[in-house]
Amino acid sequence: MPDRSESPGSVLVGMSGGVDSSTAAALLVEAGYRVVGVMLRLWSLDGAEGDNRCCAPDAVLQARQAAAQLKIPFYVVDAREAFHQIVVCSFIEGLRRGITPNPCYVCNQKFRWDTLLQQAAAMNLDWVATGHYARIRRSPRGGVELLRGVDGHKDQSYMLCGLRREQLERTLFPLGNFYKDEVRQKARSLDLPCAEREESQDLCFLGSQDIRGFIERYAPEVLQPGLILDRQGKMMGKHAGLALYTIGQRKGLGVSSHKPLYVLQKDVASGALIVGHEEDLGQSEFSVAEVNWIRGSAPKEPLAVSVKIRYQAVEVKAEVIPLPDQKAHVRLATRLRDITPGQVAAFYQGENCLGGGIIQV
Amino acid sequence: MLTDNIYLDYAATTPVDRHVLAAMQPYFGEVFGNPSSVHRHGQEAEQALIQARKKVSSILHARPDEIIFTSGGTESDNLALRGTLFALRQRRNRLQHVLISPVEHHAVVSTARHLAEEFGYELEMLPVNEYGQVDAADVAACIRPETALVSVIYANNEIGSVNPIREIGAVCRAKGVLFHTDAVQAAAHFPLNVQQDQVDLLSIGAHKFYGPKGIGALYVRRGVPIFGLMGGGKQESGLRPGTENVPYIVGIAEAFEITQDEIVNCTQKFILLRDRLISGVLENIPRVRLTGHPVERLPNHASFVFEALDGNKLLMLLDMAGFSCSSGSACKTGSPKPSEVLMAIGLSRSWALGSLRVTLGRDSTEEHVERFLEVLPKVVKDARSL
After folding, report:
1. Which residue from B minimizes the CA distance to A55?
2. Would you give the distance in Å from CA A304 to the centre of its chain?
3. How far is residue A178's CA from residue A156's CA, in Å, rounded to a whole number?
4. Axis-axis angle for helices A57-70, A19-30 (nearest 10)
5. What is the largest CA-CA distance in chain B?
6. Do residues A324 and A181 both lie within one domain?
7. Residue range A4-37, pLDDT digits in tens
8. What are residue A330's phi and psi, to 5 degrees?
9. Is A61 touching B (CB cutoff 8 A)?
10. Closest residue to A71, CB basis, from B1, B320, B332
């Protein structure tokens, strides 16, 4: 553990040019840390390089300006190759398997934190910080817990639940105790250039292109047209490629029916998109793999938790039954729709995020 | 951000000498006239211009009317290449062939490429040795009847090697071909003599020798066919229209004079520090090479390549460790590409991406060099871990 006896130490802040990471850097400066700003230059779809939401020239400029205002050094680090290999390739591979991958989760877990921590180590800095809305509670004995951000609307613990304990041990989340409005207010009061910047939404590497263009270019084989079938195998229409649909989707199916139809399932083997009515949606259990338990090891007994199956989903009560090989089974207290293979299920007890895993087919 | 880092990047730019600043000062306010004006305000400014032009020309052993003030080295290079080639084309259309070295500054390379791609000139790269130096005999062999212009950098900015300008000048003069040299780096360290060197065009920029940024000059030998690149008034013999930047022109003249006067006193000090730096790096760091010639190089210039290392990351870690240096692939946007100069001297990509340039200046001391040598091994090790 870094020595915190005198100054709070030194910290590398991952900066995106946005209001959150800029304000996070500002708060750390105010708290007395020696702060260094770093922006990771990430891979973007060809032609979208200019407008990758996280590291476009415009974003670099904003981050550079914020850093200059805070009087901290700022560097752009080329991480395109690693990002492409770790995040983008696994995204494409997931699309090929017919699942709906969550590249932001993968990025945090397998790319961003490791890259930032490595960078910090080379710079002899104690900590890594980001502008995520989440909190870390450290016990005197050295344990760490990941807690939800105080602002329930902005809480980003879901995207972070794949972080390992060693990663969190060296991490600071300066915004965890703030509401978004307060952060904007703070940014305004410091006259940071990004105070009014829009939120980033879509996958950063798509830039302003849509997912379809990305798939056409990098995984055209998943755009195989196929049949739309109902549960009984009756043909309802044709689809343009399984990767273009998500579980629970209603709009854009191009099928007319007396009752609204929803995507229930993607049958990768036959290439069929299975649809049904609202009452057919939903499951009461599912399994997860690659489960990460932030405390370091899986619990011995089944655990009562609340589970979140998408970033913006409502949590439901559930029981998690740990299984060997980093797997687990999840029994829901109520039936839940839109459970999507490839997305992340995060487990909570109160404000504590225990970890999570990838939803399986 | 007022850093207390040690500055070891004098080839990138230098601080303005306080005597230079003092010389410029009156021309912002007291003597603010337009040199083209008839009245005495104008005449006073014109006098400053005349004196500055005299100073610069006499240092170069040129005539005052052979000096064209520009916005800097890049503009001087552009004016030299575009201006002469367009003027020659108008006179005799068959002069299409342009010879440059593969170790030119971007201002020359990309201008020459643009002329080849958009205006139909034939661009040929001269061979260089492993130090990035051009041999005059190769120039002689490459010149053809249709060769319009030869441009060879005096001393390279990235690897510091000095070219045999006098010999190349003699070859070009004998063959009747125009010869341009970019002396932007050299001007801070070598006496320049356009008569002895037989150059027809020579570029300099003030901020490399403790003058202000945004001001440079091009020497154009009398009789060299050349067009201006912009339309406007008759300033600078019509080659560089627009009201003259009087305070900055005063600044470049003052800075050039001070620097050239000091060469005799400074060079030995620079060479001692440079060679200590070079041997310290080569002895204490594994998998490193000096780039450029070990002796025939800028006295203040040390440059290296490190195997299996990202030059940008090295610069970043050096900055954090308290030293401002530079590299051949300097890029603040995080997209490293190996420098063309380093590829031209035969380095593989895995070496060329790990370049470092350390350049000394008036304020550099032995202590700076020793402190640098102390931290570098650890910084290189850290950078290799990334």
Report:
1. B333
2. 24
3. 12
4. 20
5. 67
6. no
7. 456 889 999 999 989 999 999 999 999 999 999 9
8. -120, 120
9. no
10. B1
Of the partner residues A68, A78, A123, the one whose CB lies closest to the CB of residue B335: A78
Question: Structurally, how many domains does chain A consist of?
Answer: 3
- Helices A19-30 + A180-189 axis angle, to 10: 70
What are the pLDDT digits (tens) for B277-335?
Answer: 999 999 999 999 999 999 999 999 999 999 999 999 999 999 999 999 998 655 555 56
> Do residue A120 and residue A14 come from a single domain?
yes
**A-B C-beta contacts closer than 8 Å:** 48
The verdict on A115 and A50 lying in the same domain is yes
Contact B123, B152 (CB under 8 A): no
Q: Compute φ and ψ for B366, nearest 5 degrees.
A: -60, -40
State the CB neighbour count (10 A cutoff) for residue A168. Answer: 21
Provide CB contacts within 8 A for A252, sequence distance 6+.
Answer: none
B167 touches chain A (CB under 8 A): no
> Quick one: A242 and A346 in the same domain?
no
Which chain B residue shows the shortest CA-CA distance from A114? B386
User: Any idea what the CATH number is for the domain that residue A236 is in?
Assistant: 2.30.30.280
| Interface predicted TM-score (ipTM) of this complex, two decimals | 0.81
Which CATH number characterizes residue A343's domain?
2.40.30.10
Cβ-defined contact of A122 to B319 (cutoff 8 Å): no
Q: How far apart are the first and last CA of chain A?
A: 40
Q: Identify the residue whose tokens are 């650890």.
A: B378
Residues A233 and A98 in one domain: no
Do A68 and B1 make contact, defined as CB atoms within 8 angstroms? Answer: yes
Cβ-nearest to A78 among B319, B336, B385: B336
Q: How far is B333 from chain A (nearest CA, A)?
A: 6
**Whether residues A22 and A63 fall in one domain:** yes
Radius of gyration from C-alpha coordinates of chain B: 21
In chain B, DSSP assigns E strands to: 6-7, 67-70, 97-100, 122-125, 147-151, 178-182, 201-205, 216-220, 288-290, 301-306, 323-324, 355-359
CATH classification of the domain holding A45: 3.40.50.620
- Would residue A215 count as lying in a domain? no
- Helix, strand, coil % over all residues of chain B, rounded to 5: 45, 15, 40
Q: By residue range, what is the domain housing residue A300?
A: 283-359
* Residues B190-239 pLDDT 10s: 999 999 999 999 999 999 999 999 999 999 999 999 999 999 999 999 99
Are A77 and A185 in a shared domain? yes
Check whether residue A254 and residue A297 sit in a common domain: no
Q: Is residue A53 part of a domain?
A: yes
Q: Which amino acid is at A37?
A: G
Using CB atoms and an 8 Å cut-off, which of residues 116-145 of chain A contact chain B? 118-119, 121-124
Contact A294, A167 (CB under 8 A): no
Determine, yes or no, domain membership for A74: yes
CB contacts, 8 Å: B386 with chain A: 118-119, 122
Rounded to 5 degrees, what are φ and ψ at A153?
-70, -30
